[in-house]
Amino acid sequence: MTRVFARSLSRKKIMTNDGKLIGTLKNIRVDFDSGQVQEMIIHPDQSFATDGYNLEDDKLLIVPFEAVKDIKDYIVVDRYLARK
Fold first, then answer.
1. What is the rounded distance in angstroms from the CA atom of residue 69 to the CA atom of residue 9?
2. What is the pLDDT of residues 37-75, one digit of tens each?
3. At 22, which helix (H) or strand (E)?
């Protein structure tokens, strides 16, 4: 995967590898000791069914960063790795 500046991820749309829009990136969680991005916090799109996904405050999806497959115009995640 190519290197990307964190500021370029702000408000980027997130979609599954089968083309379904999940929502918009709200924030990321980083392990400061290792510097690794651990999770993405996503504001889900109204049309996206959140069943089977980790929710926080019933509004934000928590997706592990290892689910990310590509970052370009969209952040593409593996829909199976993104689930609980």
1. 14
2. 899 999 999 999 988 888 988 778 899 999 999 998 999
3. strand 21-31
SS3 at position 54: strand
CA distance 21 to 4: 21
24-33: long-range contacts (C-beta < 8 A, 24 or more apart)?
25/75, 26/60, 28/65
Q: Are 19 and 47 in contact (CB under 8 A)?
A: no
Q: How far is CA 34 from the centre of its chain?
A: 20
17-37 per-position pLDDT tens digit: 999 999 999 999 999 999 888
What pTM does this model have?
0.83
- Give backbone dihedrals phi and psi of 56, rounded to 5 degrees, phi first: -130, 125
